[in-house]
Write a structure and sequence with these properties.
Elements: H1 12-39, H2 43-58, E1 79-84, H3 91-102, E2 105-111, E3 121-124, H4 129-139, E4 143-146, E5 160-164
Parallel strand pairs: 1-2, 1-5, 3-4
Antiparallel strand pairs: 3-5
Length: 166
Amino acid sequence: MQQVHYFPSSSPWRIATLVVAAVAVVELIALLVVSGIRLAPSNRAVAKTASTEKTAVAKPTVHVPLAPSHPLRPRGRVRVLVLNGNGVSGAAAGAAQRLEVEGYRIGGTTNAARHDYSKSIVMFAPGWAKEARRLARDERVSLVTPLDGVKPSQLKGSKIVLLLGT
């Protein structure tokens, strides 16, 4: 008897199914490789961890504070300069009155160099961040930043500046 090889020509969907399954397997392997690369820690992170572990073994860890910590100063010891940056007449004076009622000392009120600030800002001198954050909470101001570009002579003895926006 002669052996007959049977290749069904009437079932092309079987070949298509096998091709689609092979492509899906290749895509799955590619996704696993890419996710493994993306989720694996970088060599720098591994090296840093290893060097930190070696350092920790070689030397005992000593806690050194970056800056001396001080308790929150009372409002009566905080001098605030109020700048009108929104162009509304009397805005700085009104804010200064509110601050005085809350216990702050006022270093002065004046107009800012510009009158187009869209938001109010609390700025602080080095070492006065805690007090600046409290003032920002008191006045419902969301922007708190270190003083930048202001000369000490312009501060009129103040350590915090409240710049009023709209």
